[in-house]
Structures are given as structure tokens and as C-alpha cells.
Amino acid sequence: MFDHAYGSYMKYAYPADELMPLSCRGRVRGLEPSRGDIDDALGKFSLTLIDTLDTLVVLNQLDEFEDAVRKVVLDVRLDNDVVVSVFETNIRVLGGLLGGHIMADMLKVQGERLQWYKDELLHLARDLGYRLLPAFNTTSGLPFPRVNLRYGVLSPNSRTGTELDTCTACAGTMILEFAALSRLTQETVFEDTARRALDVLWEKRQKGNNLVGTVINIHNGDWVRRDSGVGAGIDSYYEYLMKAYILLGDDTYLERFNAHYVAIMKYISQPPLLLNVHMHNPTVSIRSWMDSLLAFFPGLQVLRGDLKPAIETHEMLYQVTKQHKFLPEAFTSDFAVYWAQHPLRPEFAESTYFLYKATRDPYYLHVGKSIIESLNRHARVECGFAAVQDVRTGRHEDRMDSFFLAEMFKYLYLLFTEKRDLPLDIDDYIFTTEAHLLPLSLSTTRPPCRRNTTMLHGGLAEEEEIFTRSCPSAQTLFPNNPTFPYTIRDTHKHLPSLGTERLTLFGGIELPLHDTRTEPLEILKHLGLTLIPLGDGSVHMAGAQHKHEVSPVEVFTLKFIAELVSPPSREPPGLSPLSVQVISPPFLGRMVLTAGPAQFGMDLTKEEHGVKGSLVQSEPYQACSTIANREEVQGRIALAQRGGCMFAAKARNLQGAGASGVIFIDDAEGSRSEDMVPFQMVGDGSADDIVIPLVFLFWKEGQTLLDALAHHRNVEVVLGAKLFLLGEDKEESPASQKDASELPHVERERCFRGGWDQAVTEEASLSAPDSSWQPVPAAQEH
Predict the structure, then answer these.
(1) Which one of the listed residues 120, 347, 407, 632 is annotated catalytic?
(2) Active-site annotation holds for 315
(3) Is the per-residue pLDDT at 194 higher than 90?
(4) Which long-range CB contacts under 8 A does 756-763 form with residues at least 24 apart?
(5) What CATH number should be reported for the domain holding residue 712?
(6) CA gap 654, 598 in Å, rounded
(7) In this structure, are residues 528 and 558 in contact, taking their beta carbons and an 8 Å threshold?
(8) d(CA 321, CA 334)
(9) Do residues 193 and 178 lie in contact, with contact meaning Cβ atoms separated by under 8 Å?
(10) Residue 770 pLDDT level (bands cut at 50, 70, 90)
């Protein structure tokens, strides 16, 4: 599998940064349509090759490794006029160069290979380190999120340096690579700079509970987004505190990690779930969905020695993976798809590897086998492996990120390979967040910094646990109990899927009814029971009692009524759906489409009269590059398709073209609001500059708008949280205002199902309204 992926990159893409596996060519920044912030990982420095260097060694591809090192030394240049992500460049490129150097140096010392090597990769790493340092030139010491490799941050030519904030992980995931660079070059500036950023994040934590937020202002240290979790935006900050202690031997990092970990387990962990909370009010979950990046956390819990919750959360993730073939980019607390993409992320494989290392339970080999089978069956294409655009349909995306080669194959290979067959002792190294290998021997090259102290609020109140400062021991945790992983997992093997009806039996027994409706029957069979449906809606249950002696089976029947319990509400707490109401003839407000909100842009719930405007389709439709029809977009509400780049990038392009609002339409064919969890768009961590209203429609609702636009020259809509009726009355009664979220679901869908054809038929005889419009009275919603 690795040969197919790496060979395809080298054949079709090198020296480009990434492979486009569907197009069978390289992705070169500036030559392909912009994908927004996703492209900030690309710096015209052969990203995938650098990110793969130490994977080649782990997989015993030593000839290929030596050839790859030569290519990097001869071909890669860092003096490029390109703006890159500080975070991504650090973990992928700086980490890749350091991992490659360490492997090259190891092989050279062994005396059989790379005798020509003279630390060229380390020199490149040092060069890159100095190109990243200008990002830290802020009043707080927290880094800018982006830097120009040639011009830095504040130069007139840099095209960056105006950002106000960054994510916690972006600022807190530098210490491993920067400290390793300092200790290998004896230049302390890198480690000191990364350490100062960590000090700021620690100082800015909520001192009452030791939680941190997701996005922070890089100039004054104020929190911009105060949601706290272990997934996207924060994840590797926690990881690097723990691993900084392991790599560098500095107790400060461990003390900080342990303080955060206690807070995580108290407020965020709801086994097997990990749900975000507000850092200032952590007793209430602020969203009911989880993102796939938190799949790393069970692996980190293994390093912490906390095996029980690691097993529980991993098992939950495995059940979600089995249900959807891959781990969706985000999924709800009842395990339905929230964001359908799967960009071949390795975090679940990472945790699987760590749990196998800790337990030696062959169950995790079977989990690894299922990952491999899914990749080969659903992601393998002619030119590599393609990301999955939608796990529900299996549609591919023309994308194979460098981390797929850097991490996924490394963890899967290590999961199945015997230690004696590796060219190195893997236990002498620690994995960075990009799975690059840094040697533990670095801890002896520099003493801990005396100024680096940790003061906990109210002192060190928490007692240290048995594995606070050492590796976990399953024998100590679960004495003489080799089946402990099974016992823990067993309670999480039958997690319900979204909207799953449950069959409630007498005595309060609940069985999930999946799509096939066979699993509950299998469960009952194990109990010796068989369900026999009757025509009147009731059910006979037949039970068998088998005698030890040979005799006819005694059968008895018990009649009971099967009660179908409705699933819990799918609407995440605090998420109020919006509406797109078509008010131009012949619709006259009677077509109402359920829309999802955005976490950025104008807050439509505070706009009493909504935002009114005429529709126009963006060109290009995905709006990921310069808008070609700016004159048409000016002053109108643009329709743009999801995909290709981040929502924030599309919104900026359309706002810059003069759009008064944006309606994003899902690119997953067939999706519709009645079947899907309400969708909320998130920004890119620095979306304060976006002020226009933004809403999201699923595919079916979006097609309704596109059909209307195709048949009518002018289509006017109102975006808002209230529904409006066109009419003669000029007065607005507060009592008559009705939120879209309060409109019964069946009524909202009836509005939608009628579509524009029905509106034409029913309303063609109505006269055109005047310019006044007002909230719909409750009795006149339709």
C-alpha cells in the first residue's frame, strides 16, 4: 500500500508538494484553483517527500530513503515568496527534516549507508527555523498563524501580518520541533521562543478550572473562541505538553499537562464521549458533535497511563468507523455524520497502535486490519489513495495529503511488525504530532530552564496518581486480569446510530433497531428468544429451553406490544436553524427552506427583519478563487457550492466582490435537511473580518433555489430566523413574530416539498405585492 501511494507521488507529482490522485498529477500552489487555508500547508518545497523521509526508514525502504535524501538536498529550496501556515510548516516540514536527519545520521553511524551525508537536512531545518521565527514577533510572544518564507511577516512584500488571532494548537505545537532543533544545533533561540508561547497559553488558561479556549488573540492574549475540548484547535497543545516532558525531561510540562488533564476528565470527558464545553462555564456542553481529530486522544491517554477511558473512547470511535466505513470529519453524539469528509486522517490508527502496545490485545490487530481493508476497498485509486469527499456515498476528492504517508502507514506498519524486524529501536524515540521520530537522548543535551515554573491556582491540589511520572503497566492497573480490555469494551459495542429506533421490551430492556433490523434479533437469539411479528402490530416472543437430556424442545409464547421509542432530538443545543424564504413572485413567501447558521459573519438571529436580496450564482461556483462575475454579485446574495476550500475563504472572496450575503449549497448529492443533522459552518480561526450573513442549505433545498433561479429572472429571498408574510399591513406585532426554529419540522418540510412548481401553480394568479413585508402570523404560516 505504501509503495503504491509513495510510488504514485514520485511518478506523477514530484517535485510538487502533493499528489492529486484522481488527476494523476502534482498539486502546485498557484497553478490549481485555491482551496483557501488548506493550501497554506503548501510551500513549493516538495512537502510530501520531506514528510515521508523517516517513514521510509521505519518501513525498511533504505535505498529509497537514501535516494529521497539526495533529492531533498539537491532540489528543495526554502527561499520561496509564498505565505505558509506556521503550524503546518513546523510539524510537517521542520519535523520531516529533523526526522530525516536523525535517521540519516543513525544509518551513517552504522557504517553501511549515507557516508556522503554531512548534516545537509539539519542545515535545511535550521534555515527553515529562522524563516519561521519572525512569526513570533508579537507583543505577547504568541505566533502569527502565517509567515512568508522569503519576506517574513511585517515586510511590505509579505502579504501577511494582519491577522489578529491564532488557534491554541497552532501556538502550542512548536516545542518538540523547536527544542530538537535547538539541541541539535546548540542555538537556544528556537526552544526559548516555543517555550515562551507555551508560557503565555498557560498563563491565559481559566485559572479556576485549568481549561483553555480554542482561538486566542496573538497581541493581547484575550480568548476569541472560548469553547474548550480536545479536538480541532486545541488537540496537539495537550499532546505537546506531555511529550515535551518525555522528550526534554522538564517537570514543568508534566505538571501543566496533569493540571489540564484533570480538568479534561472532569468537564469534557463523558465516557465514551468527549464534548466541548465553555471554558468559563464548563458544566454544560456547548455542542453535541465531535470532530475526528480527537481520535488521537486515546493514544495520549495511554501515555498518561489512563487505559480505561482510552479503551472506552477508542471503542466508540471504532463503532462509528464500522458504521460509516471511515471516521467522518465530524459526527454527532448519537454517532451520525455531521461533516461527511474523510481526508485519510491517521489519528484513529495512531490510537489503535498505542492501545495495542499497552495491552497486547489482538483485538486491536483486527481493528488495524479493518482500517487497511477500508482504505484498499474505498480509497485506493489508480494513482494512489484518494480522500473521501462523502463517507455516505463514497465519492472521492482529488487529494492525498502528506500526512497520509507520514503517519498512517507508519502506525499501521508498526502495529503489525515485530520489533526485531525494525531497523531501529522504536522505544528510543517519541512521535511528534506528525509522527516524526525524535530521540529521547535529546533530554541530556541541555538542562531544564530554571525560569520555567508552573504555579497552579491554589497550589498543587491534585494528588499524583500511580502513573503520573511513569509509563503505564496493565498488570499494575488490572492485576491478573488479561481480559480487562474486553470487559471495558463490551459495554460500548452496541452504540445506537442516528435516529435509531429502539425496541423497548418489558422490564425496560432496550434493543437498537438498525437499518437491517437484524442485530436485535441476533441479540435475542443469544437469550434463547425469537420474535414473531403478528398482523395486528403485536409480537409473539418464543423462548426455547434446552434440556441436557435428549428431548423435544419445550416452547412457550408470550405476547407483548412492541413500543417504538422516538430518538432524541438531533438538533444540537444552542443551534437555532435559520430560513431562506423566497418572497418574489410567484412564491410570495410561501417557499421556506430550512438553513444552517455560521459561527462567523452577521448574526441573523439579531436581525429583526432578516436580510433581503436578489440571488445570483457565483462564478466560479465554489468561489475558492477570484470571483469572475463581480458586477453581477455586487449588492446581491450569492449562491456558492460547498467544497474546494474553507467556508471562510469563500465568504471573503464573495464579500470582497460586494455580495450582500452568501447561501452555501451542499455538494453531497441527495442530502436534504429532513434526513440530516442541522449543520453549522465554522470559520478558520480568524474570520472576524467577515461581516455579511451566511447560511447553509443541503443539496435538495439548494437545487430548489437553483431551479427557481433558472426559471425566473429575479428571485428575491429573505435570510433570517423569522418567517415573513407579504401583505398590506404596515404594523408589525411582536406577538406575531415567529422564529424559524419554532416552525414545526413537518410544516417547514411541507413548505419545502412543494417546491417552486407548486408555488407557480397555486400563486400565479396573485398580484405582485408591494414593497412591505412583515412577520407571518402564527395562523397564516402557509
Answers:
(1) 347
(2) no
(3) yes
(4) 756/582, 756/587, 756/591, 756/704, 756/707, 756/708, 756/711, 759/582, 759/586, 759/587, 759/588, 759/590, 759/591, 760/586, 762/590, 763/585, 763/586, 763/587, 763/588, 763/590
(5) 3.50.30.30
(6) 15
(7) no
(8) 13
(9) yes
(10) very low
Q: Per the domain annotation, does 224 fall within a domain?
A: no
Cell output for 198: 507555551
- Nearest alpha carbon to residue 311 among 471, 488, 481, 473: 488
Copy the grid coordinates of residue 67.
535516494
CB atoms within 10 A of CB 743: 21
3-class secondary structure per residue, 17-66? CEEECCCCEEECECCECCCHHHHHHCCCCCHHHHHHHHHHHHCCCHHHHH
Last residue of a domain, one of 667, 691, 720: 720
Known catalytic membership, residue 571: no
pLDDT in tens, 619-672: 999 998 899 999 999 999 999 999 878 888 899 999 999 999 999 999 888 888
Q: Which of 17, 64, 163, 235 is catalytic?
A: 235
Whether residue 165 lies in the annotated active site: no
**CB environment 767-776: b (16+ within 10 A), e (fewer):** eebeeebbbb
In a domain, residue 634? The reply is: yes
Q: Kindly report the pTM of this predicted structure.
A: 0.71
From the CB of residue 459, how many other CB atoms can be counted at a distance below 10 Å? 7
Share of the chain above pLDDT 90, in %: 63
Name the grid cell of 232: 480541532
Is 468 assigned a ligand-binding role in the annotation? no
- Which 3 state secondary structure label does DSSP give 545? strand
Q: Answer with the one of 682, 701, 720 that is the final residue of a domain.
A: 720
Is 127 part of the annotated catalytic residue set? no
C-alpha to C-alpha distance for 560 and 18, rounded to whole angstroms: 60
* Domain harbouring 25, CATH code: 1.50.10.10
Which DSSP letter does residue 557 get?
A: E
Q: What is the pLDDT of residues 463-480, one digit of tens each?
A: 566 666 666 666 676 766
DSSP result, 155-199: STTSS-----EEEHHHHHS-HHHHHHHHHHHT-THHHHHHHHHHH
In the block, residue with C-alpha cell 438553513: 595
- For cell 423497548, what's the residue? 504
Q: Is the peptide bond before 271 cis (omega within 30 degrees of 0)?
A: no
- The single residue listed with the C-alpha cell 488490572 is 478
User: What pLDDT digit, counting tens, does each position of 666-709 carry?
Assistant: 988 888 887 777 788 877 666 778 999 999 999 999 999 999 99
Residue 395 in any domain: the answer is no
* pLDDT band at residue 767 under the 50/70/90 scheme: very low
Q: Which of 329, 397, 749, 781 is catalytic?
A: 329
| Helix 347-359 and helix 409-416, axial crossing angle in degrees, nearest 10 | 20
562 phi, psi to nearest 5 deg: -80, 120
Q: d(Cα 501, Cα 358) in Å, to the nearest integer?
A: 37
Contact 245, 190 (CB under 8 A): no
β-strand partners of 773? 726
Question: Which grid cell sits at 438?
Answer: 525524535
| Domain presence at residue 763 | no
Domain that includes residue 622, residue range: 578-720
Domain count across the chain: 2
Most confident of 141-155, 481-495, 739-753: 141-155
For 265-276, what is the mean pLDDT? 94
Pairing of strands 380-381, 337-339: unpaired
Radius of gyration of the chain, Cα coordinates, nearest whole angstrom: 28
**Active-site annotation holder among 88, 165, 239, 361:** 88
Q: CA dist 667 to 3, 380, 652, 703, Å? A: 32, 22, 19, 10
